[in-house]
Amino acid sequence: MGTLVVTEAELRTCLQIDNRSLDATERAFVWIAEGRVSMPPVMHIDVDADSAVDTKGAFVEGIDHLAIKIATGFFRNPQIGLPSCSSIIALMNAQTGAFECVFLDNGFLMDLRTGLAGAVAAKHLAPQSVETVGVIGTGVQARYQIESLALVRKFEQLLVYGRNSTSVSNYCAEMSERIGVPVKPCPSVEELVKTAQIVVTTTPATGPVIMADWLHRGLHITAIGSDLPGKQELHSDGVIRR
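The chain above was modelled as a monomer; its predicted structure follows.
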């Protein structure tokens, strides 16, 4: 039997931001907590200051397959009309090691899983009553995170902060239609943090974008950008004091 190849377009027809996908993502965290997961550290390759490749993999005891993912982040790509991130996933038979399937997802599964993981965190940790959500960033994850969050929390408005005014305007127009609540630009990160009950950071920052003095009781922050050494979105004083 040959190796099945599944394209991004095919994946998008059967997977989306919904409760079924949310439940599957939450189940993965349960497996980790139960000690069933073999997951080595990420192999990270720096290409240059704005480009890198990561290899990740995991095996869950009792599951028939294991997966290896190669993901790229080339953050100058938007300047030439290409997406910043892409990925390919190989699915292997856990008994024989045979490559049974390759997902040519172009980052779709990575984006979907990351967005849903943020929603899982909010489901268990964020305040039950939420009036305002804030998002820092206007890229792909700024969309996936908020759409996924809407599965687990109702909110009345979304504030967005971004460095590019055109990107902010486009984001507001697109997301207000997608989530059905007003989406408004915010003039500063400080105002956004002080106003919101849930804040999502989606930046590649290497220094803090949220200061400790801005934090307030009842605030939940989902910080997804600090995924490697050298990255930082939250000031360390905010963690130490709280």
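Residues 9 and 105 are 8 Å apart (CA to CA).
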